[in-house]
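[agent] plan:
  1. take the single chain provided in the ticket
  2. run structure prediction with default settings
  3. attach C-alpha coordinates to the ticket
  4. add a short note for the reviewer (M.T.)
[agent] executing step 1
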Amino acid sequence: MQTTLKAPQRKAALVFIFITVLIDILAFGLIIPVLPHLVEQFVGGDTKSAAYWVGIFGTVFAAIQFFSAPIQGALSDRFGRRPVILLSCLGLGLDFIFMALAPSLMWLFVGRVISAVTSASFTTANAYIADVTPKDKRAGAFGMVGMAFGVGFIIGPMLGGWLGHYDLRYPFWGAAVLALANFLYGLFVLPESLAPENRSRAIAWRHANPVGSVKLILQYPQLFALALILLLSNLAHYVYPSVFVLYADYRYDWGPLAVGKVLAVVGVCSALVQGFLVRKWVPVLGEHKALVLGLLAGVVGFAAYGAAPTGTLFLCAVPIMALWGLAGPAAQALVTREVGPEVQGRIQGAMASLVSLAGIIGPALYTFTFAKFIGRGAPIELPGIPWFIAASLLGMALVLAFKHWRTHPDTQAGH
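[agent] step 2 finished; step 3 output follows
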Protein backbone atom coordinates (compact mmCIF):
# COMPACT_ATOMS: atom_id res chain seq x y z
CA MET A 1 0.00 0.00 0.00
CA GLN A 2 1.44 3.36 -1.07
CA THR A 3 2.01 6.08 1.48
CA THR A 4 -0.58 8.87 1.72
CA LEU A 5 2.05 11.63 1.62
CA LYS A 6 1.07 14.43 -0.74
CA ALA A 7 3.40 15.41 -3.60
CA PRO A 8 5.04 18.39 -1.79
CA GLN A 9 5.58 16.27 1.34
CA ARG A 10 6.96 13.43 -0.77
CA LYS A 11 9.39 15.79 -2.49
CA ALA A 12 10.55 17.22 0.84
CA ALA A 13 10.99 13.70 2.22
CA LEU A 14 13.09 12.61 -0.76
CA VAL A 15 15.23 15.74 -0.48
CA PHE A 16 15.84 14.90 3.17
CA ILE A 17 16.80 11.30 2.34
CA PHE A 18 19.22 12.60 -0.30
CA ILE A 19 20.73 15.01 2.23
CA THR A 20 20.84 12.26 4.89
CA VAL A 21 22.80 9.90 2.65
CA LEU A 22 25.02 12.73 1.38
CA ILE A 23 25.88 13.92 4.89
CA ASP A 24 26.48 10.36 6.13
CA ILE A 25 28.89 9.72 3.26
CA LEU A 26 30.50 13.14 3.71
CA ALA A 27 30.98 12.41 7.40
CA PHE A 28 32.64 9.08 6.73
CA GLY A 29 34.65 10.54 3.87
CA LEU A 30 35.98 13.22 6.19
CA ILE A 31 37.72 10.69 8.43
CA ILE A 32 39.08 8.38 5.69
CA PRO A 33 42.35 10.32 5.21
CA VAL A 34 43.02 10.72 8.96
CA LEU A 35 41.80 7.63 10.83
CA PRO A 36 44.83 5.46 9.92
CA HIS A 37 47.18 8.32 10.85
CA LEU A 38 45.43 8.73 14.21
CA VAL A 39 45.80 5.00 14.83
CA GLU A 40 49.46 5.30 13.83
CA GLN A 41 49.86 8.14 16.33
CA PHE A 42 48.42 5.99 19.13
CA VAL A 43 50.88 3.16 18.41
CA GLY A 44 53.94 5.42 18.50
CA GLY A 45 54.27 6.09 14.77
CA ASP A 46 54.87 2.44 13.86
CA THR A 47 53.31 1.88 10.40
CA LYS A 48 53.46 -1.91 10.74
CA SER A 49 51.50 -1.92 14.02
CA ALA A 50 49.10 0.70 12.67
CA ALA A 51 48.35 -1.54 9.66
CA TYR A 52 47.41 -4.44 11.96
CA TRP A 53 45.07 -2.25 14.01
CA VAL A 54 43.45 -0.65 10.95
CA GLY A 55 42.72 -4.18 9.74
CA ILE A 56 41.12 -5.10 13.06
CA PHE A 57 39.07 -1.90 13.02
CA GLY A 58 37.82 -2.58 9.50
CA THR A 59 36.96 -6.22 10.11
CA VAL A 60 35.01 -5.49 13.30
CA PHE A 61 33.20 -2.58 11.63
CA ALA A 62 32.03 -4.76 8.72
CA ALA A 63 31.10 -7.69 10.97
CA ILE A 64 28.86 -5.49 13.12
CA GLN A 65 27.22 -3.97 10.04
CA PHE A 66 26.64 -7.47 8.67
CA PHE A 67 24.22 -8.03 11.56
CA SER A 68 23.06 -4.50 12.39
CA ALA A 69 21.83 -3.56 8.89
CA PRO A 70 19.05 -6.20 8.74
CA ILE A 71 18.17 -5.52 12.38
CA GLN A 72 17.68 -1.83 11.61
CA GLY A 73 15.49 -2.85 8.68
CA ALA A 74 13.35 -5.04 10.94
CA LEU A 75 13.04 -2.25 13.53
CA SER A 76 11.91 0.19 10.84
CA ASP A 77 9.23 -2.29 9.69
CA ARG A 78 7.92 -2.45 13.25
CA PHE A 79 8.26 1.15 14.51
CA GLY A 80 8.45 3.19 11.28
CA ARG A 81 11.30 4.65 9.23
CA ARG A 82 11.48 8.09 10.82
CA PRO A 83 12.60 7.10 14.36
CA VAL A 84 15.22 4.67 13.07
CA ILE A 85 16.73 7.21 10.66
CA LEU A 86 16.72 10.02 13.24
CA LEU A 87 18.25 7.86 15.97
CA SER A 88 20.92 6.76 13.53
CA CYS A 89 21.80 10.39 12.69
CA LEU A 90 21.87 11.34 16.39
CA GLY A 91 23.94 8.32 17.38
CA LEU A 92 26.40 8.94 14.58
CA GLY A 93 26.88 12.58 15.57
CA LEU A 94 27.47 11.76 19.24
CA ASP A 95 29.83 8.96 18.27
CA PHE A 96 32.00 11.26 16.13
CA ILE A 97 32.37 13.51 19.20
CA PHE A 98 33.30 10.41 21.19
CA MET A 99 36.05 9.60 18.67
CA ALA A 100 37.23 13.22 18.44
CA LEU A 101 37.93 13.13 22.17
CA ALA A 102 39.52 9.66 22.13
CA PRO A 103 42.57 9.67 24.44
CA SER A 104 43.63 6.12 23.57
CA LEU A 105 43.47 3.45 20.89
CA MET A 106 40.87 1.43 22.81
CA TRP A 107 38.62 4.48 23.15
CA LEU A 108 38.86 5.01 19.39
CA PHE A 109 38.08 1.31 18.83
CA VAL A 110 34.91 1.55 20.95
CA GLY A 111 33.92 4.59 18.91
CA ARG A 112 34.25 2.61 15.69
CA VAL A 113 32.07 -0.15 17.15
CA ILE A 114 29.33 2.36 18.00
CA SER A 115 29.75 3.91 14.55
CA ALA A 116 29.19 0.53 12.89
CA VAL A 117 25.88 0.12 14.73
CA THR A 118 24.55 3.63 14.14
CA SER A 119 25.65 3.99 10.51
CA ALA A 120 23.74 1.00 9.11
CA SER A 121 20.85 3.25 8.05
CA PHE A 122 21.07 2.95 4.27
CA THR A 123 18.73 -0.05 4.27
CA THR A 124 16.11 2.07 6.07
CA ALA A 125 16.70 4.96 3.68
CA ASN A 126 16.07 2.65 0.72
CA ALA A 127 12.90 1.36 2.36
CA TYR A 128 11.76 4.97 2.90
CA ILE A 129 12.22 5.71 -0.81
CA ALA A 130 10.17 2.63 -1.73
CA ASP A 131 7.42 3.80 0.69
CA VAL A 132 7.03 7.29 -0.74
CA THR A 133 7.85 6.84 -4.44
CA PRO A 134 5.61 5.39 -7.16
CA LYS A 135 7.04 2.27 -8.81
CA ASP A 136 7.70 4.00 -12.11
CA LYS A 137 9.80 6.68 -10.41
CA ARG A 138 11.82 4.54 -7.98
CA ALA A 139 14.76 3.99 -10.33
CA GLY A 140 15.28 7.74 -10.56
CA ALA A 141 14.99 8.11 -6.79
CA PHE A 142 17.54 5.37 -6.15
CA GLY A 143 19.77 6.97 -8.78
CA MET A 144 19.60 10.17 -6.76
CA VAL A 145 20.88 8.27 -3.72
CA GLY A 146 23.69 6.83 -5.84
CA MET A 147 24.64 10.35 -6.86
CA ALA A 148 24.76 11.32 -3.16
CA PHE A 149 27.27 8.51 -2.61
CA GLY A 150 29.43 9.76 -5.47
CA VAL A 151 29.37 13.40 -4.40
CA GLY A 152 30.06 12.49 -0.77
CA PHE A 153 33.09 10.38 -1.63
CA ILE A 154 34.52 13.15 -3.81
CA ILE A 155 34.09 16.03 -1.35
CA GLY A 156 34.46 14.18 1.98
CA PRO A 157 38.03 12.87 1.67
CA MET A 158 39.25 16.13 0.13
CA LEU A 159 37.74 18.19 2.96
CA GLY A 160 38.93 15.67 5.56
CA GLY A 161 42.45 15.79 4.17
CA TRP A 162 42.46 19.58 4.36
CA LEU A 163 41.20 19.61 7.97
CA GLY A 164 43.53 16.78 8.96
CA HIS A 165 46.47 18.74 7.60
CA TYR A 166 45.98 21.12 10.55
CA ASP A 167 44.89 18.60 13.20
CA LEU A 168 44.02 14.91 12.89
CA ARG A 169 40.97 15.39 15.12
CA TYR A 170 39.38 18.27 13.21
CA PRO A 171 37.70 15.96 10.65
CA PHE A 172 35.93 14.08 13.48
CA TRP A 173 34.52 17.35 14.80
CA GLY A 174 33.44 18.30 11.29
CA ALA A 175 31.72 14.95 10.84
CA ALA A 176 29.95 15.37 14.19
CA VAL A 177 28.63 18.80 13.20
CA LEU A 178 27.28 17.42 9.91
CA ALA A 179 25.56 14.42 11.51
CA LEU A 180 23.96 16.43 14.34
CA ALA A 181 22.80 19.13 11.91
CA ASN A 182 21.24 16.34 9.86
CA PHE A 183 19.40 15.07 12.95
CA LEU A 184 17.98 18.53 13.74
CA TYR A 185 16.98 19.07 10.12
CA GLY A 186 15.16 15.73 10.03
CA LEU A 187 13.50 16.32 13.38
CA PHE A 188 11.59 19.25 11.88
CA VAL A 189 11.31 18.19 8.23
CA LEU A 190 11.11 14.41 7.88
CA PRO A 191 7.57 12.92 7.89
CA GLU A 192 6.90 9.26 8.60
CA SER A 193 6.56 7.19 5.44
CA LEU A 194 5.19 3.92 6.81
CA ALA A 195 1.54 4.12 7.89
CA PRO A 196 0.69 2.31 11.18
CA GLU A 197 -1.56 -0.16 9.39
CA ASN A 198 1.34 -1.23 7.14
CA ARG A 199 3.77 -1.95 9.98
CA SER A 200 4.60 -5.42 11.23
CA ARG A 201 2.94 -6.38 14.50
CA ALA A 202 6.17 -7.81 15.89
CA ILE A 203 9.84 -7.71 14.99
CA ALA A 204 10.51 -10.58 12.56
CA TRP A 205 13.87 -11.64 13.94
CA ARG A 206 14.07 -14.59 11.55
CA HIS A 207 14.17 -12.09 8.67
CA ALA A 208 16.93 -10.11 10.38
CA ASN A 209 19.39 -12.91 9.68
CA PRO A 210 21.96 -12.11 6.96
CA VAL A 211 23.35 -15.66 6.89
CA GLY A 212 20.01 -17.05 5.73
CA SER A 213 19.87 -14.65 2.82
CA VAL A 214 23.25 -15.87 1.51
CA LYS A 215 21.94 -19.45 1.47
CA LEU A 216 19.22 -18.30 -0.91
CA ILE A 217 21.78 -17.96 -3.70
CA LEU A 218 22.55 -21.68 -3.51
CA GLN A 219 18.97 -22.36 -4.59
CA TYR A 220 19.74 -20.75 -7.99
CA PRO A 221 22.76 -22.53 -9.57
CA GLN A 222 22.76 -20.14 -12.54
CA LEU A 223 23.60 -17.30 -10.13
CA PHE A 224 26.57 -18.97 -8.49
CA ALA A 225 29.24 -17.66 -10.89
CA LEU A 226 27.82 -14.12 -10.83
CA ALA A 227 27.64 -14.19 -7.04
CA LEU A 228 31.30 -15.24 -6.87
CA ILE A 229 32.24 -12.47 -9.30
CA LEU A 230 30.50 -9.89 -7.11
CA LEU A 231 32.10 -11.34 -3.96
CA LEU A 232 35.61 -11.31 -5.47
CA SER A 233 35.10 -7.80 -6.86
CA ASN A 234 33.94 -6.39 -3.54
CA LEU A 235 36.74 -8.20 -1.72
CA ALA A 236 39.23 -6.60 -4.12
CA HIS A 237 37.65 -3.17 -3.59
CA TYR A 238 38.35 -3.29 0.16
CA VAL A 239 42.05 -2.72 -0.56
CA TYR A 240 41.21 1.00 -0.89
CA PRO A 241 39.84 1.70 2.62
CA SER A 242 42.17 -0.86 4.19
CA VAL A 243 45.65 0.24 3.11
CA PHE A 244 45.56 3.18 0.71
CA VAL A 245 46.30 5.86 3.31
CA LEU A 246 49.12 3.90 4.98
CA TYR A 247 50.54 2.74 1.63
CA ALA A 248 50.56 6.26 0.17
CA ASP A 249 52.30 7.63 3.27
CA TYR A 250 54.84 4.80 3.44
CA ARG A 251 55.76 4.69 -0.25
CA TYR A 252 55.12 8.21 -1.55
CA ASP A 253 55.22 10.29 1.66
CA TRP A 254 51.68 11.59 1.04
CA GLY A 255 50.07 13.19 4.09
CA PRO A 256 46.33 13.65 4.76
CA LEU A 257 46.04 16.65 2.42
CA ALA A 258 47.62 14.84 -0.54
CA VAL A 259 45.60 11.69 0.14
CA GLY A 260 42.37 13.69 0.22
CA LYS A 261 43.16 15.26 -3.15
CA VAL A 262 44.04 11.92 -4.73
CA LEU A 263 40.86 10.30 -3.42
CA ALA A 264 38.89 13.19 -4.88
CA VAL A 265 40.51 12.53 -8.29
CA VAL A 266 39.66 8.83 -7.96
CA GLY A 267 36.08 9.78 -7.07
CA VAL A 268 35.71 12.11 -10.07
CA CYS A 269 37.04 9.48 -12.50
CA SER A 270 34.75 6.83 -11.02
CA ALA A 271 31.76 9.19 -11.17
CA LEU A 272 32.43 9.88 -14.87
CA VAL A 273 32.50 6.16 -15.64
CA GLN A 274 29.44 5.35 -13.51
CA GLY A 275 27.40 8.36 -14.60
CA PHE A 276 28.34 8.52 -18.28
CA LEU A 277 30.27 5.59 -19.75
CA VAL A 278 28.11 2.87 -18.20
CA ARG A 279 25.00 4.40 -19.76
CA LYS A 280 26.72 4.77 -23.16
CA TRP A 281 28.91 1.67 -23.43
CA VAL A 282 26.98 -1.17 -21.80
CA PRO A 283 24.05 -1.06 -24.30
CA VAL A 284 26.56 -1.09 -27.18
CA LEU A 285 28.97 -3.71 -25.85
CA GLY A 286 26.46 -5.93 -24.10
CA GLU A 287 26.63 -6.84 -20.44
CA HIS A 288 29.13 -9.71 -20.73
CA LYS A 289 31.65 -7.71 -22.78
CA ALA A 290 31.29 -4.74 -20.43
CA LEU A 291 31.82 -7.04 -17.44
CA VAL A 292 34.97 -8.56 -18.98
CA LEU A 293 36.35 -5.16 -20.04
CA GLY A 294 35.73 -3.71 -16.58
CA LEU A 295 37.39 -6.60 -14.77
CA LEU A 296 40.38 -6.53 -17.14
CA ALA A 297 40.84 -2.80 -16.49
CA GLY A 298 40.69 -3.51 -12.76
CA VAL A 299 43.40 -6.19 -12.98
CA VAL A 300 45.71 -3.86 -14.93
CA GLY A 301 44.94 -0.89 -12.67
CA PHE A 302 45.56 -2.70 -9.38
CA ALA A 303 48.79 -4.25 -10.71
CA ALA A 304 49.96 -0.80 -11.80
CA TYR A 305 49.15 0.63 -8.35
CA GLY A 306 51.27 -2.03 -6.67
CA ALA A 307 54.19 -1.65 -9.07
CA ALA A 308 54.26 2.17 -9.28
CA PRO A 309 57.57 3.38 -7.75
CA THR A 310 56.44 7.03 -7.71
CA GLY A 311 53.26 8.89 -6.89
CA THR A 312 53.10 10.27 -10.44
CA LEU A 313 52.99 6.78 -11.95
CA PHE A 314 50.34 5.79 -9.40
CA LEU A 315 48.17 8.70 -10.59
CA CYS A 316 48.65 7.66 -14.23
CA ALA A 317 46.90 4.37 -13.43
CA VAL A 318 43.80 6.06 -11.95
CA PRO A 319 41.91 6.51 -15.27
CA ILE A 320 42.56 2.86 -16.19
CA MET A 321 41.37 1.77 -12.76
CA ALA A 322 38.19 3.84 -13.14
CA LEU A 323 37.08 1.66 -16.07
CA TRP A 324 36.60 -1.13 -13.55
CA GLY A 325 33.36 0.72 -12.81
CA LEU A 326 31.83 -0.89 -15.92
CA ALA A 327 31.88 -4.30 -14.26
CA GLY A 328 29.55 -3.75 -11.30
CA PRO A 329 26.47 -2.47 -13.16
CA ALA A 330 26.97 -5.11 -15.89
CA ALA A 331 27.11 -7.91 -13.30
CA GLN A 332 24.03 -6.59 -11.49
CA ALA A 333 22.13 -6.43 -14.79
CA LEU A 334 23.06 -10.05 -15.53
CA VAL A 335 21.85 -11.07 -12.07
CA THR A 336 18.44 -9.52 -12.70
CA ARG A 337 18.16 -11.48 -15.96
CA GLU A 338 18.75 -14.82 -14.24
CA VAL A 339 15.73 -14.78 -11.88
CA GLY A 340 12.10 -13.78 -12.08
CA PRO A 341 10.51 -10.68 -10.53
CA GLU A 342 9.05 -12.64 -7.63
CA VAL A 343 12.50 -13.13 -6.02
CA GLN A 344 14.39 -10.02 -7.15
CA GLY A 345 14.19 -8.35 -3.73
CA ARG A 346 15.50 -11.35 -1.83
CA ILE A 347 18.27 -11.96 -4.35
CA GLN A 348 19.43 -8.34 -4.10
CA GLY A 349 19.42 -8.67 -0.31
CA ALA A 350 21.56 -11.79 -0.58
CA MET A 351 24.01 -9.97 -2.85
CA ALA A 352 24.20 -7.15 -0.30
CA SER A 353 25.11 -9.71 2.36
CA LEU A 354 28.00 -10.85 0.18
CA VAL A 355 29.31 -7.28 0.20
CA SER A 356 29.27 -7.39 4.01
CA LEU A 357 31.11 -10.71 4.00
CA ALA A 358 33.79 -9.16 1.79
CA GLY A 359 34.06 -6.34 4.33
CA ILE A 360 34.71 -8.83 7.11
CA ILE A 361 37.50 -10.60 5.22
CA GLY A 362 39.13 -7.73 3.30
CA PRO A 363 40.56 -5.36 5.95
CA ALA A 364 42.55 -8.03 7.76
CA LEU A 365 43.69 -9.64 4.50
CA TYR A 366 45.20 -6.44 3.14
CA THR A 367 46.51 -4.77 6.27
CA PHE A 368 48.15 -7.90 7.66
CA THR A 369 49.94 -8.66 4.37
CA PHE A 370 50.99 -5.01 4.02
CA ALA A 371 52.45 -5.10 7.53
CA LYS A 372 54.19 -8.41 6.80
CA PHE A 373 56.03 -7.11 3.75
CA ILE A 374 57.30 -3.74 4.98
CA GLY A 375 59.99 -2.65 7.42
CA ARG A 376 62.42 -4.65 9.47
CA GLY A 377 61.85 -8.41 9.49
CA ALA A 378 59.97 -8.51 6.18
CA PRO A 379 60.83 -11.58 4.03
CA ILE A 380 61.00 -9.16 1.09
CA GLU A 381 60.29 -5.42 0.88
CA LEU A 382 57.08 -5.40 -1.16
CA PRO A 383 54.66 -2.66 0.02
CA GLY A 384 52.55 -3.07 -3.14
CA ILE A 385 51.52 -6.63 -2.28
CA PRO A 386 47.93 -5.69 -1.21
CA TRP A 387 47.30 -4.26 -4.69
CA PHE A 388 48.73 -7.41 -6.29
CA ILE A 389 46.35 -9.51 -4.18
CA ALA A 390 43.43 -7.35 -5.32
CA ALA A 391 44.56 -7.78 -8.95
CA SER A 392 44.67 -11.57 -8.45
CA LEU A 393 41.15 -11.61 -7.03
CA LEU A 394 39.84 -9.68 -10.04
CA GLY A 395 41.79 -12.06 -12.28
CA MET A 396 39.81 -14.96 -10.80
CA ALA A 397 36.60 -12.99 -11.31
CA LEU A 398 37.65 -12.38 -14.94
CA VAL A 399 38.02 -16.13 -15.54
CA LEU A 400 34.55 -16.73 -14.08
CA ALA A 401 33.13 -13.96 -16.27
CA PHE A 402 34.55 -15.60 -19.41
CA LYS A 403 33.05 -18.94 -18.38
CA HIS A 404 29.66 -17.40 -17.69
CA TRP A 405 29.79 -15.62 -21.05
CA ARG A 406 30.46 -18.93 -22.82
CA THR A 407 27.77 -20.91 -21.00
CA HIS A 408 25.06 -18.20 -20.95
CA PRO A 409 25.33 -16.44 -24.34
CA ASP A 410 21.58 -15.89 -24.50
CA THR A 411 21.68 -13.40 -21.59
CA GLN A 412 23.90 -10.88 -23.38
CA ALA A 413 22.49 -7.40 -23.85
CA GLY A 414 22.85 -5.62 -27.14
CA HIS A 415 22.94 -8.85 -29.21
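[agent] step 4 note for reviewer: The radius of gyration is 21 Å.
[agent] ticket updated
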